[in-house]
Specification:
Length: 225
């Protein structure tokens, strides 16, 4: 089976997955602040998705397939295509391929994105808001006396320290939002993904932390089958 890299460039981290066939062998994390993305010397091909405006160079002689807005993805959408992030469409594509049913994909990264896919595989649209860590950072930056705290699973309403109150307040905000989605869309399968998603696993029907990588793998095989 062919070996290649699937690279997901997010707002905070870069995930570099080594793939054999359709199986992920390992995933390395890099800061998105780097300028050159390292690709193992024995990899001949890589597929890349980026949400950054920054143009990266690649330390390798590999052939690079960029999953950009004009690339063909086998999923139709009602969303304004030119403004739909390719990462969102890839996550939706992978999510639907997992369930083959009406599906909601919640990606908890720097931004929290929600995408709806109908049972006929049509991407119906979605919403965007701040992710868990971005909420915490915003409170600390905009409120002089509030500290920056780490993201943590904390769903108690009555807290006795400021740190715990911030953790609990932001956690409850996101978890209540997810519960509301489940209540309103009972016929949809809920898939959670992204860097903070493990903190909310209890609310998802399926948890796939690296769903954009899964979408890149499927897209690679679609273009190179």
């Amino acid at each position: 089976m062919g070996k290649f890299c699937a690279i997901d460039i997010g707002n905070t981290d870069i995930k570099i997955a080594t793939v054999v066939g359709d199986k992920i062998k390992n995933i390395r994390l890099q800061s998105s602040d780097i300028k050159t993305i390292p690709i193992p010397h024995n990899i001949k091909t890589a597929i890349v998705c980026s949400v950054k405006n920054h143009k990266y160079t690649f330390k390798s002689g590999s052939k690079i397939l960029f999953a950009e807005k004009d690339i063909e993805i086998p999923m139709k959408t009602k969303y304004e295509r030119k403004n739909l992030g390719v990462d969102r469409l890839l996550a939706s594509y992978a999510g639907y391929e997992i369930t083959k049913k009406s599906t909601i994909i919640i990606n908890l990264g720097t931004a929290l994105t929600v995408d709806f896919v109908a049972k006929n595989s049509l991407h119906q649209g979605g919403i965007i808001t701040a992710g868990y860590n971005l909420m915490l950072e915003s409170l600390s930056k905009k409120c002089d006396k509030l500290p920056l705290v780490n993201a943590k699973q904390n769903h108690r309403y009555l807290q006795l320290t400021t740190e715990q109150a911030i953790q609990s307040g932001t956690y409850i905000l996101i978890s209540s939002f997810i519960e509301k989605l489940k209540k309103l869309h009972k016929n949809y399968v809920l898939i959670g993904s992204g860097g903070s998603s493990s903190l909310f696993k209890r609310y998802f029907d399926i948890h796939k932390e690296n769903i954009v990588i899964l979408g890149l793998i499927k897209l690679y095989h679609y273009h190179f089958k």
